[in-house]
Amino acid sequence: MGIVNNIFKWYLLERYGMIERFMKYPVNAQNEVWDNLVSTAENTVWGIEHNFSQLNDRKEFSQKVPLQNYETLKPYIKRMMHGEKDVLWPGVVEWFSKSSGTTSDKSKFIPVSKENLKKCHIRGSWDTLTLLYQNKPESQIFAGKNLIMGGSLVDFSEYPESKIGDVSAIMMAHMPAFAKPFYAPNLEIGLMSEWEKKIELTARAALDLNITMIGGVPTWTIVLFRKLLEITGKSNILEIWPNFETYIHGGVSFMPYREQFKQFLPSESVNYVEIYNASEGYFAIQDDLKSDDMLLLLDNGIYYEFLPMEEWEKENPQTVLLEEVEVGKNYAIVISTNSGLWRYMPGDTIIFTSTSPYKIKVSGRTQQFINAFGEEVMVSNTDSALSATCREFDTVVCEYTVAPFYIKNDGKGSHQWLIEFERRPLDIEKFAEKLDKNLQNINSDYEAKRYKNMALNNLTIQELPSGTFHNWMKKRGKLGGQHKIPRLANHRDYVEDILNFINPPS
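The chain above was modelled as a monomer; its predicted structure follows.
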């Protein structure tokens, strides 16, 4: 297996030349992607409707093609799901990634064309390993097996030729033969739809394997780890898999989970690699394990625009191009892809940490923030404040969500935190006070509203029983895959639903 690992290592280091090229010539790379996307799709229904054949450059594209969300593209996607060809992208698209729902739908379905699968998602996976081996040339990932916490696939009931499922499951279903010997568990288990049974079978199937790497959302990886320790009676995962070296995570911020993973994987030699992948595409990868930002991928079939925060609520919001972004500003990401998403807003917000090369951090969601009192709190703020407070109090948090308490009789509002602790603080009130101060230190708008309690009172914490978030998500039919705990909301719908779930009204 050492020889095999060296062969993969050589191949991945060769791939690094392509990454260096777009790092050196980022605007050229994005021009090439844009030109290829528009010219390829000019004879589709969408391309004809929006005169793609007449577009001359990226600026004209942003001026003449309106911004889109899932609701505006849904009629076109439905046509594609029923087998119609040349709608948003040339040919028939057979695969659709199931993602978390919108206000009117339980789920949304993102087209995954053959080009998108191969040149974006699968390429992104290889780029992740390329950058890992660039950081850690001594890695032995391919000397063992890699465990992927993937989703499931089903036929689309209205048109069975179309398949729907998590993008991880679509990738697993298209896994090349040479990669299968390095994958765990087997595809039968890996593509199961019943998550609790899948966790049990995955744990038992992987117990005696030489697992060197895991990829998956932190929430479900923790559930797997707990099951492994329950079955074996071991005290940590490295007692089960002594050669384990790398955990690749994405989908949610890793910050709230870091302390839990240190307990499961008590070794400084374990690598943690963050990726920014979604149903819509594979966007960025942590390229320096000593830094917590990620390299934006500029040549994988995704064309990017960026919507400044001050434009989000405008009737005709204006995006900026890659070369126009500024370090430290919040942007909503806008994408056009090689599966037919055109000027599409997936709802994520990012901050650029560098423009040479272009590196980012995910700051939150356009629909996950609190600005009830002008405080403009993002998920990145609450994650950072909570992580700092947990370190100070030697506390571990499993999950959390936050919502505003709207103005009461005293004329002031506040934020209510629902927290499920793995290891709770001895004094919850002091923990809340420190959490509030840490949030003020991170967010000046929140600090201003908290000044002398003039507009906002100190935040409050309600401790939740163990397993609350898991059971609440299960009740909502949102276990596993792309489903994530909503961190922030500018309304109280989630918080009230959780509180009613644990204390049903009589």
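The radius of gyration is 23 Å.
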